[in-house]
Amino acid sequence: MTNRSGKDKNMPYDMKNSRTVKDRIGDLFTKRPGNDFFLNFHTFWDTKTESKLRSYRYLTMKHCFPFLAPVFLGTLLVFSPGCSGTPPPEAVPQTVPRVTMVFDRMEASGPDNVTLYFFIHASNPGAEGVVVEPEKSRMFINGKELLAGFSGSVEKTRIDPGMRKKIETACGLDLKNLDPPLPPETTAIDTKTILELAFAFDGGEHGSVVTGADFSFPRIREPEFSIVSIAIMQAELINTRFKVKVRIENPNPFPMTFSSFTYELYGHDRFWADGSEADIYTIPENGKAEEELFLVMNFINMQRNLLDQVIAMRNVRYRFTGKAEIGTGVEYLPSFTTAFDLRGDSEVIK
Asked: How many C-beta neighbours within 10 Å does residue 28 have?
């Protein structure tokens, strides 16, 4: 029995298809004039099944590429080394600690020694505990970064997962020894503090965060003293009274009140007299005043010739030292004690 192609159905397959496998593969890829290679699917399919040729369809390589490319790439991924196993789970990165820095208060032990206190509000949103500690601090005054004259301290702190902590930090300023120095006429100080904090999670992840705060305050400058004149008011056998006129200048934009004044007078390197005053005067802002201070020189324990020298003296090489308690009315330093030590030559007025 034969089929429509003229071949016996009972014949072995190899005898029915005398063409070699190589010829059949060649039939699969055929070159058509003016076109790319195409796949003649019916050639292999119809010959093998001996079915009736009902259609003659061609698929060019250009049309097949979108379908073949994913299959090819997927095969490469499946059989590539290292892709057959399940990759290890990646470590979940911890959330960086959140920190903010706010000014709290200011304290001072004198006009040139001040301390600024800040609070650092730190929170740990991560799933592990974290340790926070200071790494670097920077300070700017009136727009210039300080190289010396300031110091800071922050305690090393541990924060548990999901918790918050308030950390106090202090920054000390030595206004007389800043680098770069403050200009003498400076009346206001604008500060900017920048703090870099290092953090380390329990799992080993670490890094740093930066925070900062600003604060401004009026500068308090000490009064300036100078001797105007030294006069002998009365010369007696035992006591001699002196009057020392002192000029005091207030360089601040606020008044200064002198609540107490103690002083000593030396002449030619020898102690002459001392004295004290209380609640004496107020120097207006950016003003000056001349005040008279009275001293008594006692000769009981001195040689007689010293009295003669003082009475006959026309000029004196003096040293005038003392302390004054001054009120400022400024919140961070309402009062302070200033010391003075004046030396020079002066005419002795009689």
From this structure: 13
State the sign of the Cα–Cα–Cα–Cα dihedral 130, 131, 134, 136.
negative
Residue 12 backbone dihedrals phi, psi, to 5 degrees: -60, 155
- Tokens at residue 73, please? 């790439």
Peptide bond into 87 cis (omega under 30): no
Distance of alpha carbon 111 from alpha carbon 174, whole angstroms: 9
Tell me phi and psi for residue 208, to 5 degrees: -150, 155
Give residue-wise pLDDT tens across range 147-169: 998 888 888 999 999 999 999 99
pLDDT at position 34, please? 47
Strands (E), 72-220: 98-110, 113-123, 130-141, 144-145, 150-154, 157-159, 164-174, 188-201, 206-218
Rounded Cα–Cα distance for residues 148 and 157 (Å): 27
Q: Is the confidence at residue 90, as pLDDT, over 70? A: no
Give helix 21-28 / helix 41-49 axis angle, nearest 10°. 140
76, 100 in Cβ contact below 8 A? Answer: no
Q: Please name the helix (run of DSSP H) or strand (run of DSSP E) that holds residue 42, with its range, or none.
A: helix 41-49
Per-residue model confidence as pLDDT tens digits over 16-66: 444 554 455 455 444 444 444 444 444 444 444 444 434 334 444 445 555
* Type of residue numbered 65: F
**What is the C-alpha separation between 148 and 248, in angstroms, rounded?**
32
Residue corresponding to tokens 């960086």: 96
**Alpha-carbon distance 349 to 42, whole Å?**
135
Domains along the chain with CATH numbers: 13-79 (no CATH), 98-218 (2.60.40.10), 224-349 (2.60.40.10)
Q: Read out DSSP for 242-269? A: EEEEEEEE--SSS-EEEEEEEEEEEETT
The average pLDDT across 314-318 equals 84
Check residue 251 and give its pLDDT.
Answer: 95
